[in-house]
Write a structure and sequence with these properties.
Blueprint: E1 8-13, E2 26-31, H1 39-47, H2 51-59, E3 66-70, E4 79-84, H3 92-108, E5 113-117, H4 128-142, E6 161-166, H5 171-199, H6 207-220, E7 224-229, H7 231-236, H8 240-246, E8 254-261, E9 270-280, H9 300-315, E10 320-330, E11 341-344, E12 350-353, H10 360-371, E13 378-383, H11 388-393, E14 398-402, H12 405-418, E15 422-424, E16 442-443, H13 452-461, E17 468-473, E18 479-480, E19 486-487, H14 492-500
Parallel strand pairs: 1-6, 2-4, 2-5, 5-6, 9-10, 9-13, 12-16, 13-17, 14-15
Antiparallel strand pairs: 3-4, 7-8, 8-10, 11-12, 14-17, 18-19
Length: 505
Amino acid sequence: MAYKVLNNVSLKDVTKSGIAGLKTDLLVLVINKNTKNNSAFKDLNKISKNYISQTIQSHLKENGSSILIPKINGISALNVLLVKGIEASQPTHKWLSMYQSIAQKGNNIKAKDITVMPGKISPKGKDEMWLIEMVAKTIESNVYIFSETKNKTVQKPSVKKLSILVSDLSKADLTKAKNSAKKGFAIGEGVNTAKYLGDLPANHCTPRIIEKKVKAMTKDFPKLKVKTFNENQMKKMGMGSFLSVSRGSEEPARMMVIEYKGGKASEKPIALVGKGVTFDTGGVSIKPSPAMDEMKWDMCGAATVFGVMSMLARLNANVNVVGVMGCAENMCSSKATKPGDVVTSMSGQTIEILNTDAEGRLILADCLTYVGKYKPSHVIDMATLTGAVVIALGRHASGVMANDQNLANMIIESGEESGDRAWQLPLWDEHQSCTKTKYADLANIGGGREAGTIHAAAFLSKFTNDYKWAHIDIAATASYSTPVKAGTGRPVPLISELLLSKRLN
């Protein structure tokens, strides 16, 4: 089960045919300094009797500003959207914002299809192929509207088709452009898949429901191999840390393992591990009631794994990846884990659970131990782990900590390239003292309020001694809080860029 909105993304070469006769609900013209030299634009402006150029001059003053023009005589498009383009010097996330607004405009006017002339200008260091990929990715992931649990009268995504206009491309470059569009579409689909899982209410997205969706995914993508583990199986493997989280719930935990083998048989896989707490009350250390409904997004790490794995299969990517999703509910009951309880992890290390609301790291600890059996080249876990990262970085960047600086650097680079930004926090030897406790090998929280995000990573690092590892805390970036309340699909773009760029090879 992958969640796509658009039926297809196509390229149209308008070198000879022009664009005045193109039938589309919304024709988007991105205006930049090269536009005046574009023959297609010149034709459109001539047909409009200079109305388009006059509108640009009078209404488009700031970069990213736009104006929607209904039917223009002589132009077949039902609506024309003029957008003043972003300067090439601007970073990737600025370009993403521009195309996000275009996608939203398409849904607002209930357009069934969008045709975009992006122009030839892209951010410094990027080419037209990057621009095509970005347009496809951003439009697909932003025409998404969650409507599954609403009645049939509510707004659903209207846009089902995207056409990207190109001109003066060689046969070889046209092939590259088509591949770029396909890649962007697949990443956008992965983003939507993660959004959709996160947006589902917790009673519609339990560990067992996710298990069914993961198994169903193999029907669409036979190249994906899925293993699922129930609580009895996890108990036999010694996953006492993981299982301590689900003890208070009637809903049993599940661990799903998705294998994708697209690279050489000799290549070690890259492992992705995602926290999947489908609802988090905090357990006995119960959370405050305001905004507790947002705890349905506490499974966005697992949702990211799901989205990325579907993206890889869609593209037949030449890389080996194993994805692990650790899913559980954290609830209160007479059977729930209590503060002060000591459990034994799969690694054999004992853990004193001082706070049952620090549950995600308990799940990840055993998943990180399990994934070691694959002898991975790199391991990256993604988790909505700490509120502290929101305080540290705001909603703009995910927090990165690692035991390997090269891996951390590549994650940061991929974030900048994709516009899905991340920032590194330190993980020094001095931070390891927070895991010490009198009654077990490790404590699941450090003392006090200091460096909460780093202390969580320090705990996880105790289970990652055998491989290169990075932790991405997405508590601030995986969803929008009040008043928007929606999943973002992050960090699917970052992880997709990291894997597809072959930076880790």
